[in-house]
Amino acid sequence: MDIPVEFINVIIAFFITTIGATLQGSIGFGLGLIGVPLLVLLDPVFVPGPLLLAALCLTLLIALREHHAVKAQELKWAITGRIAGTVIGAGILTIVPREEISLLFGSMVLLAIAITLSGFNLSLKPANLFGAGTFSGLMGTTSAIGGAPMALVYQRQKGAKIRGSLSSIFVAGTIISITSLAIIGRFGQTELKATLVLIPGMILGFFLSKHTSKILDRGFIRPAVIIASAISGIVVILQNVL
């Protein structure tokens, strides 16, 4: 089976995916943050379908590893919001240019971080979980980088709960996104072959994150989440400005 990617790009994609998967396995999100801007420059075939399928495999692995820290009641509201945000985001894209809406959401993430640093704390109430899930779905649909909103809500929780909860939420949203791409003809054999290029790096990153997550859980998980969220917002803005 021929893979539609040059060999040198296969090697580079491996390292990109390994770094992204290690970050996501450590704090709950990050594969899209690292992968989207770099892989699309490397070879557009990797984004969005192949990266989404690799992310789905990764989130399933993380969710299984951290399942003991996940509360189903919280997931219900967040997943409902994620689904709603995905649908709304798809509708918005038919009216508003992707560049404009992504710029808005990226700016909102930075604003949310500023509010967080001021000392404001969002509790895990149904309304907050639903709102963050919706925002995450909107951002994920318009920019393919949607982890930050949910991560900011969970930032004060323990590492295992952040990773397990975010992964469980992302599973539902990612399945919807991949299904939508398949329906409109943007995920077929070519994208499936390209996904195979990303899987080895994803698996290595997952296993590496078992060690890096233990380091971050020693009091560094919240700063890591805030920094990664800030970078996420900046990346979303820059990829639509430059």
Helices and strands, with pairings:
Blueprint: H1 7-27, H2 31-42, H3 49-65, H4 72-93, H5 98-117, H6 126-143, H7 148-154, H8 159-183, H9 189-216, H10 221-241
Helix pairs in contact: 1-2, 1-9, 3-8, 3-9, 4-6, 4-8, 5-6, 5-10, 6-7, 7-10
Strand content: under 5%
Structural class: mainly alpha
Q: Which descriptor suits the 3D outline? A: globular
Please report the total strand number as a whole number: 0
Strand count, sense and barrel status of the largest sheet are: none
Evaluate the radius of gyration.
17 Å
Output the keywords.
mainly alpha; 10 helices; 242 residues
Quick recap:
The chain is mostly helical and 242 residues long.
Structure description:
By secondary structure, this protein is mostly helical. The chain has one domain (7-241). Helices cover 79% and strands 0% of the residues. It is built from ten helices and no strands. It has helices spanning 7-27, 31-42, 49-65, 72-93, 98-117, 126-143, 148-154, 159-183, 189-216, 221-241. The N and C termini lie far apart (37 Å).
